[in-house]
Amino acid sequence: xxxxxxxxxxxxxxxxxxxxxxxxxxxxxxxxxxxxxxxxxxxxxxxxxxxxxxxxxxxxxxxxxxxxxxxxxxxxxxxxxxxx
Length: 84
What we know:
By secondary structure, the chain is mostly helical. It is built from two helices and two strands, in the order ααββ.
């Protein structure tokens, strides 16, 4: 995990998150997605999904991992990845 904020770090790769954190984020997002689907029929305001990080670099990595990001494949093509 990056120790410095975004202004001081280099290139950030969401796949560099520790596997335990990736699994936790996937589980949290899965629960959010299930709750969102249940709420749609009864509550017209989506549930909130909040993750707190220790610095802006970590926050950006988590944001990209959950919301989705583009990665370059070995062939040079781009592939869109998301947590859910």
